[in-house]
Write a structure and sequence with these properties.
alpha/beta, 3-stranded antiparallel β-sheet, 13 strands
């Protein structure tokens, strides 16, 4: 199958990044409506993985941030992802930070963004999820939730509970985003006292929602790569204490060592893409050390090849997610990662019996 993305990328990279983002998604929607995407994009082979009571058709998902409002679910699903995570959505609509707020650093295969949770609000997102054919046909849609910028950090738990209540019926799983660097003071929620209070509130709210709806939806936590070992150990302990179902490692980084001297390298915001690969992988490794098999890890950050996806799995991840790699590699990256991880599972089967290998990727 011919990969046309390398031909399109120079033209897309000549545009403003946010403009290119919007244009690309609009054209994907159009191609999906015309039935072209599944013909033009290589579809990964089935490779189901069980995690937290959900069977993922393959272990390669879309990370939050690319489709903040759930406007492009059916088109993105047609690219071959095993699951989609949309958002971050907040209780109330908000415009986010002033433009420009997204910057490419091609020399480093990186992106800096300071979008600031721009979204139409959680209710609009829920309506779009319900109307998507992918969701109606049983596709896996995780919803990533956050707090409004105008909400004081000491009242953050209220926003997260409100958002969780709104998405609970439609979300396959719910991710709590406390690690974006683009909402003032948000990362303070990763500290002991504030994280304990937040997870306690969410735990109680989920118990009530489980009773109300007769189903317990998995709750994930997304953390930053800029954490020391003490921070990671603290978070791991709280994940266990409050029965969080999985942890996503990691969000973007505020570090700039890898992009020193590059154009836009000192722009404020979160740095993603290849420069975050090592830090993200080390957080996965540390979490695995502290959590063992008690709580699964979803690896995201700096995956630009199938080998990078394997690295995340080899250090402890059970699933992976892509975002910035898609900007640099295009949709072909999805099938490449899925093929690498299918081979990764075959390698496990060569070392262990089939049942043992399956349980290595089966959690919850």
């Amino acid at each position: 199958m011919i990969d046309s993305y390398p031909l399109l990328r120079p033209w897309l990279f000549s545009l403003d990044p946010e403009q290119a983002h919007t244009l690309t998604l609009s054209n994907l929607d159009r191609a999906q409506r015309w039935g072209l995407l599944r013909c033009l994009v290589e579809q990964p082979a089935a490779d189901p993985r069980g995690l937290c009571g959900i069977t993922f058709p393959n272990p390669v998902g879309l990370a939050a941030g690319l489709d903040k409002d759930g406007k492009h679910i059916d088109a993105l699903a047609s690219l071959g992802f095993g699951f989609l995570e949309i958002g971050t959505v907040t209780p109330k609509p908000q415009t986010g930070n002033p433009k420009p707020r997204m910057f490419r650093l091609p020399q480093a295969q990186a992106i800096i963004n300071r979008m600031g949770f721009n979204n139409d609000g959680v209710e609009a997102c829920v309506k779009r999820v319900r109307s998507s054919a992918y969701w109606q046909n049983g596709g896996i849609v995780g919803i990533n939730i956050g707090k409004n910028a105008s909400t004081p950090i000491e009242n953050a738990a209220s926003d997260y509970v409100t958002a969780m209540e709104a998405v609970y019926e439609v979300a396959s799983y719910i991710t709590v985003n406390i690690s974006s660097p683009n909402t003032q003071n948000l990362r303070a929620l990763q500290g002991d006292e504030m994280l304990r209070a937040l997870l306690g509130s969410l735990h109680l709210a989920r118990e009530a929602l489980s009773d109300k709806h007769g189903v317990r939806k998995p709750l994930f936590l997304k953390i930053a790569p800029d954490l020391d070992q003490g921070d990671i150990k603290l978070i791991a302990d709280l994940l266990l204490e409050f029965k969080i179902d999985a942890v996503i490692a990691t969000n973007t980084t505020i570090a700039r060592d890898a992009v020193q001297g590059l154009e836009f390298g000192q722009e404020a915001g979160g740095l993603s893409g290849y420069p975050v690969r090592i830090a993200s992988t080390e957080v996965v490794r540390s979490l695995k050390q502290y959590l063992g098999n008690a709580i699964p890890i979803i690896g995201v950050g700096g995956i630009l090849s199938g080998k990078d996806a394997e690295e995340k799995m080899d250090t402890g991840a059970s699933l992976v997610q892509l975002y910035s790699g898609l900007i640099y590699r295009g949709p072909k990256l999805i099938a490449e990662c899925a093929a690498a991880l299918k081979s990764n599972l075959h390698a496990l089967k060569s070392l262990f019996d089939t049942e043992t290998a399956f349980h290595i990727v089966q959690f919850c």
